[in-house]
């Protein structure tokens, strides 16, 4: 049984969750939560609205786009014709390009060393192969990043949906990871097919296959160091669960990390994934199933992973981790992209991660995606989220003690 209680805080409502640990891959109980008072520290944020005109906001990117030493913010919409960026600190709006229909994902990296990143973008998106060209393009500035950028098409892979740069071998030379949403034979509502992952080296942009082990819908893609701090691993979330992909001795080695929601297909698996640490111990956190309501934490347990549903929300679409209060334990941020339009922060209230608190950060944010970065260069971690239903882009300035 999980206990919940609301108390007033400067950052919103705070909930304490005391979760009974479930056995690995056992469906969560549906019993109602029992309320109790909670006394926990509050993470404090000051909310800044960058824009309230981001119809179908889908992805924020935080990166220095004009080489002035400040991190700027790109806001990607799946519906608006303009791809725009907002210049730190006054958030002046600039158009990167216009007319790329059904843009769905971006990844930024400075490939030529001029201090301004190139932008890989996935557009012409559709959920199945017959309705998706799946174009991968590269955007490069033409001397003045506040003016329109050059668009160069690189490849076409139907349903291309997620893009991430990764240093897979510790060389400092990034490669681009590309994840289509569904496989060639997939049809709604089951989407039953294997889904490939691709990767590209920027020196030739040749499409290479990373794996063909995704199942159904590959919705989540994350890149982080895992068991080697010198190189990135690639994490993918699909109907088949969460896989970690490592590049070892010139080949990709996939490993099933956790199976996700044990419900029957297509309600199985995971939708979004991130990893974090509680001191020296790693954890995996997911939204389950696809666009689902479960906020899940997997904790290391005798060589395996214990599945723990720490909350249920309306419709999750993003999950990120960061140590916002510098206590050595990462917090989790996610929210309801659906009717409630709520953004939440979850904090472990004990070193093991057996119990978590929930804090409401915003009741006017339907987060399609969030990212963490130090936006004001004050040596702590801030949060940027973009809202689909709420059509906004916000910076949450971390002022935690």
Secondary-structure map with pairings?
Blueprint: E1 3-4, E2 6-9, E3 12-18, E4 34-35, E5 45-51, E6 57-63, E7 72-77, E8 82-87, E9 92-98, E10 105-109, E11 118-123, E12 135-140, E13 150-156, E14 160-166, E15 175-180, E16 194-200, E17 208-215, E18 220-225, E19 232-238, E20 241-248, E21 251-258, E22 272-278, E23 281-288, E24 294-301, E25 304-312, E26 320-322, E27 331-335, E28 343-348, E29 355-362, E30 367-373, E31 382-387, E32 393-398
Parallel strand pairs: 1-4
Antiparallel strand pairs: 2-3, 3-29, 5-32, 6-7, 7-8, 8-9, 10-11, 11-12, 12-13, 14-15, 15-16, 16-17, 18-19, 19-20, 20-21, 22-23, 23-24, 24-25, 26-27, 27-28, 28-29, 30-31, 31-32
How would you describe the overall organization of this protein?
The chain is mostly beta strands. The protein has a single domain (3-24, 35-398), classed as Integrin alpha, N-terminal (Methylamine Dehydrogenase, Chain H), CATH 2.130.10.130. 0% of the residues lie in helices and 50% in strands. The two termini are 31 Å apart. Residues 1-39 have low confidence and may be disordered.
Based on DSSP secondary structure assignment, what is the total number of beta strands? 32
The main sheet comes to:
6 strands, antiparallel
Overall mean pLDDT: 91
Radius of gyration: 20 Å
Number of domains: 1
CATH overall fold name: Methylamine Dehydrogenase, Chain H
Reported CATH architecture: 7 Propeller
Class by alpha and beta content: mainly beta
State the separation between the terminal residues, measured CA to CA: 31 Å
Helix content: under 10%
Strand content: over 45%
**Unreliable residue runs:** 1-39
| CATH homology-level superfamily | Integrin alpha, N-terminal
User: Outline, from the CA principal axes?
Assistant: globular
Strand order of the largest sheet: 2-3-29-28-27-26
């Amino acid at each position: 049984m999980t206990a919940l209680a609301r108390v007033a805080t400067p950052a919103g409502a705070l909930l304490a969750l005391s979760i009974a640990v479930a056995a690995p891959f056992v469906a969560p109980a549906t019993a109602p939560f029992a309320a109790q008072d909670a006394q926990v520290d509050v993470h404090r944020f000051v909310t800044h609205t960058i824009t309230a005109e981001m119809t179908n906001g889908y992805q924020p990117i935080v990166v220095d786009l004009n080489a002035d030493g400040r991190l700027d913010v790109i806001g990607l919409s799946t519906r608006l014709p303009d791809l725009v960026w907002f210049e730190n600190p006054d958030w002046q709006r600039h158009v990167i390009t216009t007319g790329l229909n059904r843009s769905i994902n971006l990844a930024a990296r400075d490939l030529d060393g001029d201090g301004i990143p190139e932008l890989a973008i996935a557009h012409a998106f559709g959920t199945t192969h017959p309705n998706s060209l799946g174009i991968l393009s590269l955007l490069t500035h033409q001397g003045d990043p506040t003016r329109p950028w050059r668009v160069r098409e690189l490849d076409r892979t139907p349903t291309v949906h997620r893009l991430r740069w990764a240093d897979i071998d510790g060389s400092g030379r990034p490669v681009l990871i590309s994840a289509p949403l569904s496989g060639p034979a997939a049809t709604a509502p089951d989407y039953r097919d294997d889904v490939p992952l691709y990767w590209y080296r920027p020196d030739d942009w040749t499409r290479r296959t990373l794996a063909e082990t995704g199942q159904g819908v590959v919705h989540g893609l994350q890149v982080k160091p895992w068991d080697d701090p010198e190189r990135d691993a690639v994490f993918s979330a699909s109907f088949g669960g969460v896989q970690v992909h490592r590049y070892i001795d010139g080949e990709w080695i996939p490993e099933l990390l956790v199976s996700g929601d044990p419900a029957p297909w297509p309600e199985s698996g995971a939708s979004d994934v991130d990893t974090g640490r509680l001191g020296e111990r790693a954890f995996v956190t997911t939204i389950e199933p696809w666009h689902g309501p479960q906020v899940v934490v997997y904790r290391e347990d005798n060589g395996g992973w214990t599945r723990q549903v720490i909350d249920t929300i309306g419709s999750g679409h993003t999950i990120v981790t960061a140590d916002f209060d510098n206590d050595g334990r990462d917090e989790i941020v996610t929210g309801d992209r659906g009717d409630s339009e709520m953004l939440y922060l979850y904090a472990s209230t004990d070193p093991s991660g057996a119990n978590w608190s929930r804090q409401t950060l915003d009741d006017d944010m339907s987060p399609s995606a969030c990212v963490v970065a130090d936006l004001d260069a004050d040596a702590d971690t801030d949060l940027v989220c973009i809202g689909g239903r709420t059509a906004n882009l916000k910076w949450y300035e971390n002022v935690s003690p």
